[in-house]
Write a structure and sequence with these properties.
The chain is mainly α. The chain folds into two domains: 3-90, Tyrosine recombinase, N-terminal domain (DNA polymerase, domain 1); 117-293, hpI Integrase, Chain A. It has helices spanning 3-16, 22-42, 54-57, 59-66, 71-90, 117-124, 132-147, 151-156, 185-201, 221-232, 243-256, 261-268, 273-276, 278-294; strands spanning 162-163, 168-172, 178-182. The chain is globular, with a radius of gyration of 23 Å.
Length: 298
Amino acid sequence: MKIIEAIDKFIDYCKVERNYSVHTIRSYNLALGQFTAYLENEYSEIPSLEKLTTNDIRPFLGWLHDNGKDKSSLKQKISAVKSFFKFCLKKGIVERNPAALVITPKTPKRLPSFLLENEVTELCKQFNPDIAEDSRNLALIELIYSSGLRISEALQLNINNINFSAKSVRVFGKGRKERVVPIGSKALQALTNYINKRKELSDKIEDKSLFISIHGKRLSSVAAYRIINHAMKGITEAKRKSPHVLRHSFATHMLDHGADIQSVSEMLGHESLSTTQIYTHVSVDRLKEAYKKAHPKA
């Protein structure tokens, strides 16, 4: 099978069977397009999938580096290629996986940006709960911070995903993995207020989407980013000002107040504790800083 045909099948698989986000599909498409360009550059004729070896794939990293891609980008690109060949093996398109032995480059873990607790309070004060659009923005922020949701997870929610009596939200994370996460009282209050005002946003609401635009459609990730980014300006010195900062803040503040890492990991929807451990570094660094400032012999 030609590689272009196999890539098309893989992308359809990611869309239909895996239900990956638009962002993931786009990044896979881009990476595999670059992989095809690399093969075209290296060979007068692109080898068939069956003939590709590990040694044909390894130089792709060097080719990307020569084309100005940074380490984090290299990791993303090669991961896409590895996922593609894993799919090809699973579907019987190839008899062996030539990408299995290709090592994914490690990238240094950067400590996540987060808000201080008083900054979260100030952020929420930016919105007037009596105004329909503000009530939606406040509910979105309170929910992400209260339950540690990804922005994509929050925007995919329908009204019936919120269980007000159980004080929880049913979330569909990466790969459509479902989890149930508690919601705090302030977030529940903000959500109740917003839902009561939801009809004031638009008279053409199309479905049961929880967070909608003024046109009655599901709120987009671009619009949500702009809302939260704008509200954070002047509130925090955090380098990043995005919805994901609220998720980072949730995890950091939970651990600061004594939550066990396993529980935080489950609420975040992490597959491994190692992913959650980055937040313990934040808490430890803050403790060290507080010690240096307060202890007379620090």
